[in-house]
Amino acid sequence: MKKWKTLGVAAGLAMTLVAAGCGNDSSSSDSFSEQVDYKITGIEAGAGVMSAAEKAIEDYDQLNGWTLQPSSSGAMATTLGEAIKDEEPIIITGWTPHWMFSKYDLKYLEDPKGSFGEEETINTMTRQGFADDVPGANKVLDQFNWTTDDMGEVMLEVSEGADPAEAARNWVDSHEDQVAEWTKGAEEGNGQEVSLTYVEWDSEVASTNVMKAVLDDLGYNTKITPLDNAVMWQSVANGEADAMVAAWLPTTHGDLYEQYKDKLVDLGPNLEGAKTGLVVPDYVDANSIEDLEAK
Question: pTM, whole model, 2 decimals?
């Protein structure tokens, strides 16, 4: 009798475990779209990648009913890090270069409809007359060119707690040959002020601080000022600032470029291979925007 009682208890326990397992399977079987509650974690409203994400929501039936949640670049990165720590699903508006691609295993969702455009360049823009007023600094800005990996080194150090000026100094000191190419043939300064403006994206914080360190070493008195996107462009176009190394083209800053291009001097790309899009951790099953589901 005891034997049958024991078997009965064991069978009951087994059924309980099976039921519990089925409950977990049901929860885990929710689609990725359901797990993220049909929400894309974004950055500052008005940023180019946010406008492209809004276009994607319009372009793709799969994103019907989705919400683009604005925040800030820093808040987005924090939310991403917390999700990855717990291996939870998340989808963000992302861009390259960015330190998060050096720190985490991430992937862009394929964008077959081209809502986010093709790869971009980051260009250097100066005010009209700057080349005549400060030819040495202008030459350095014209010759400034680096890679996404170069920029990523600076951004990653900043993300780990370094002051941007310190991280830029470390990079400049450890890449003397590369910096020498930027300054080759450039007239040294004698304390002339050079004003650079930038938008407070991690990429632009990195490039602008590096350029400040290079120009300061050459004898210029370099001032850097963070501004909103539109004000950054306006300040250079109106001559309130001398230059920026932060113009994402042709998509991210395309509207602003069209608005101000006749008042600016485009020195061309200082970085190629920049990209924006929807980004997820590698452990997420989705590989394309078309893998998502409408709400």
Answer: 0.77
